[in-house]
């Protein structure tokens, strides 16, 4: 009991208790931070998984768009080949160039430019597609616009070619 009366001993004992309290508070605070960091880590992991899923969906959609574009390019090439064959046949048959042939040649050039522009847009849009979903909608609109222009040019050229064939047959 003598040591309880000693002031220095009591001061050091109180300091020791105070230090233990501070350490215990620090452990409690650290435990809370660890729990909060664990929760944050879990949330970030879920968000990462969601982003990976979105990325997979975008990649699949990109593949579908690339396949559709490739199909359109093949169709355009077939049309261009058909127009070229028709032009060659007409030159052999008539040995003269008339307005319809010049128009068909312009259409061929226009379709070639459309295909080149479409390739340019595809490369540009596909580079931006995974990072910006808004650009994907613009790419779809541009692709649809190009498709409709190709269809219009094809229809006009086919109509004029058929008219020419009918005139030649008469």
Name some characteristics of this structure.
170 residues; mainly alpha
Task: Give a short summary of the structure.
The chain is mainly α. It has 4 helices and no strands.
> Can you tell me the overall shape?
rod-shaped
Number of domains: 1
| Largest sheet geometry | none
Distance between the termini: 133 Å
Which band does the percent of strand residues land in? Answer: under 5%
Contiguous uncertain segments of 5+ residues: none
- Count of alpha/pi helices: 4
Q: Structural class of the helices, strands and pairings? A: mainly alpha
Number of strands: 0
The Rg value, from CA coordinates, equals: 38 Å
Sketch the topology as an H/E string, one letter per element.
Answer: HHHH
What is the mean pLDDT? 81
Helical proportion? over 70%
Summarize the SSE layout with pairings:
Blueprint: H1 2-5, H2 7-94, H3 99-128, H4 133-169
Question: Describe it for me?
Answer:
This protein is mainly α and 170 residues long. It contains four helices and no strands. The chain has helices spanning 2-5, 7-94, 99-128, 133-169. Helix 2 packs antiparallel against helix 3 (99-128) and helix 3 runs antiparallel to helix 4. The model has no long low-confidence stretch (mean pLDDT 81).
